[in-house]
Write a structure and sequence with these properties.
With about 425 residues, this protein is an alpha/beta fold. Helices cover about 45% and strands about 15% of the residues. The longest helix has about 40 residues.
Length: about 425
């Protein structure tokens, strides 16, 4: 290889080795299983397919069709969905498909505000703005980090949105869908749920079941609590034939051409694994997040919603304004081999210098950590917050991390978690 190729490869391998020694706490990331990684680098990565299985615009899709049909079958079973499309190549692309299918420029969609934990695709500078829709934010209860039910009912009746959208990036508690169902029926809006952060918890029965609580369409990425590849998916119930056709057309040719067949296959493997392991995995992830919140709270690090048990999901939100703010603390944590992200809290105005941090338990759970380990992780975080030397903390992190080297909750759970396949020089 030449110097350029060696430089790229060396940095990728360095990244693998670094993460093998880090505590991964970003709530929007996870690890695929070795089996899923194997199909990700298969010949599917070099091929192309347009359209639906059996109705392709290309030849050469005999086995692609079989895998995609199996992926759809697994998704229907795992999520009890009547409609499935595994072609979106990311969560945001899935969101764009919903927008193209069900919203015209100028239409009104209700959603949460960015500071309340919403995803950037719902903002004026994101997919919503690119589609030209008018976004109206729900009333939000900061104490419960959830919607104000009475205020939301009033807003929905006043605004009468074409689509009511739910889902967050700081997704601590299930939105009150059942309490809003009568209002959805009264105004006749489509109900859309962005499940990107909690898809794995939904699969494991640990958060809520949106498709049984009045949701028509669920969009999602597939690499957060759901431990699959960077890809997307659409799931639906109670859609009319015309709505299903509109959604399929919005996916292709609307927002995708070929749909990254290698990632689709890796998603299918992950769904096969989650059919077996989702319940146990999701339960442990939720136990771990609550344990982390409790341990941090006891160490004097302000965790949001202590009276509500901190969270019902994989994520917790922490106010570190007294320790230097989210940007500063996240950097010091990275210096100590703990990977998280700064995050806006409801009272923040700046996404660049927010007061908060967001932690997720899902990847720590994936490499075998349990509730007792969360106490150790919390101690590292508290030490960084309170000004302990980052080198000392890093040394202790490296020692602690030696006990967690393989991927769990999958078919080949003894394989190394990061960089499991060494390339020859």
């Amino acid at each position: 290889m030449n110097d350029d190729a060696r430089y790229i490869r060396d940095n990728v391998m360095a990244h693998n080795e670094w993460f093998d020694e880090c505590i991964p706490m970003i709530a929007s990331e996870n690890l695929m299983s070795p089996l899923a990684k194997e199909v990700l680098i298969s010949d599917f990565a070099d091929r192309y397919a347009e359209g639906m299985p059996g109705k392709r615009y290309y030849q050469g899709n005999i086995y692609v069709d079989k895998v995609e049909l199996k992926a759809m079958e697994l998704a229907e079973d795992l999520f009890k969905a009547q409609f499935v499309d595994v072609r979106p190549i990311s969560g945001t692309v899935a969101n764009m498909a919903v927008l193209f299918a069900f919203a015209e420029p100028g239409d009104t969609i209700t959603t949460c505000a960015l500071a309340q934990g919403a995803h950037i695709s719902t903002q004026k500078f994101g997919a919503f703005g690119q589609r030209g829709v008018h976004s109206v934010n729900y009333p939000f209860n900061v104490e419960s980090m959830n919607l104000d039910v009475d205020g939301t009912i009033k807003l929905l009746k006043d605004v009468k949105p074409k689509v009511a959208q739910f889902g967050l990036s700081v997704f601590l508690f299930p939105p009150p869908l059942r309490e809003l169902q009568d209002t959805f029926d009264e105004i006749g809006c489509l109900v859309w749920y962005d499940a990107a952060h909690v898809l794995g918890l939904i699969a494991g029965g640990q958060f809520q079941d949106p498709l049984r609580e009045g949701v028509n369409i669920m969009s999602s990425s597939t690499h957060k609590t759901f431990p699959g590849p960077n890809h997307g998916m659409l799931l639906g119930n109670n859609l009319t034939d015309d709505q299903e056709k509109a959604l399929r057309k919005a996916v292709f040719p609307g927002v995708t051409s070929s749909h990254h067949l290698h990632a689709m296959a890796a998603l299918a493997i992950t769904m096969a694994e989650m059919k077996v392991f989702a319940k146990e995995y999701a339960a442990q992830a939720c136990k771990n997040s609550r344990a982390l919140g409790q341990a941090l709270y006891e160490l004097g690090v302000p965790v949001l919603c202590p009276d509500l048990g901190f969270t019902r999901s994989h994520a917790i939100a922490v106010d570190v304004s007294e320790f230097g703010g989210g940007k500063d603390v996240a950097q010091r944590m990275e210096d100590a081999n703990m990977i998280c992200n700064k995050n806006m809290l409801p009272w923040d105005e700046s996404a660049v210098k927010p007061s908060g941090l967001r932690f997720g338990s899902q990847e720590m759970t994936r490499i075998g950590m349990k509730e007792s380990d969360m106490k150790e992780v919390a101690s590292f975080i508290a030490r960084i917050c309170k000004g302990d030397d980052t080198k000392k903390v890093k040394s202790d992190v490296l020692e602690f991390r030696k006990g967690f080297k393989s991927v769990k909750y999958c078919f080949n759970d003894n394989e190394p978690a990061y960089g499991y396949r060494k390339l020859v020089p």
